[in-house]
Amino acid sequence: MGTVSQTTHYSFTDFTPFTGISYYRLKQADIDGRFKYSVTVIARLDGKLKKAVSISPNPVSDKINIRISSDVSTNAGIRIFDALGQVIYRQNERLVNGDNVFTLNNIQYFSKGIYTVQVVIDNEILSTKLYKLQ
Fold first, then answer.
1. Ramachandran angles phi, psi of 108, nearest 5°
2. What is the average per-residue pLDDT within 65-76?
3. What does the pLDDT read at residue 25?
4. Are 107 and 61 in contact (CB under 8 A)?
5. I want to staple 95 with a disulfide (CB 3.0 to 4.6 A). Which of 31, 55, 70, 107 is the partner?
6. Distance CA 124, CA 69 (A)
């Protein structure tokens, strides 16, 4: 659309989604070649997903917000793994029914790379990728 001052709406239909869980995000590209990604969202083909996790911003340079959606009030374990599969961060949180947002402020100390954020809720494991810049 180029540079516009009004809201622009886009839509996309995935006619061949994976069976089970699919992950989606948008890539916004500027005319000068720079780009950024939206928050990753999770969709389940059967529509029965009761728990979900997303991270923003992603890619990240200093801090992230982890949004955990849960259908129950319970405890959750948040772990971040490096590329070698080693746990480099661990935190436990109490979830309420609905959306929960937790901010991690120490991401600036992570090396540049790709990490796995894993949330464990009632023996169910939810994972997403974290892309660290600089």
1. -60, -20
2. 88
3. 81
4. yes
5. 70
6. 13
113: left (phi over 0), alpha (psi -120 to 50) or beta: left
Handedness of CA 99, 14, 128, 61 (dihedral sign): negative
Q: Which residue is it, tokens 């971040």? A: 80
Q: Cβ of 97: how many Cβ atoms within 10 Å?
A: 11
Mean pLDDT value across residues 62-69: 90
pLDDT of residue 93: 93
Cα(103)–Cα(55) distance, integer angstroms: 10
The residues, ordered by sequence, that sit 6+ positions from 87 with a Cβ below 8 Å of its Cβ are 79, 80, 81
Cα 98 to chain centroid distance, Å, stands at: 16
**Collapsed DSSP state (helix, strand, coil) of residue 40:** coil
pLDDT tens per residue, range 81-100: 998 889 999 999 999 988 89
16, amino acid identity:
T
Domain architecture of the chain: domains with CATH = 50-132 (2.60.40.1930)
d(CA 54, CA 40): 6
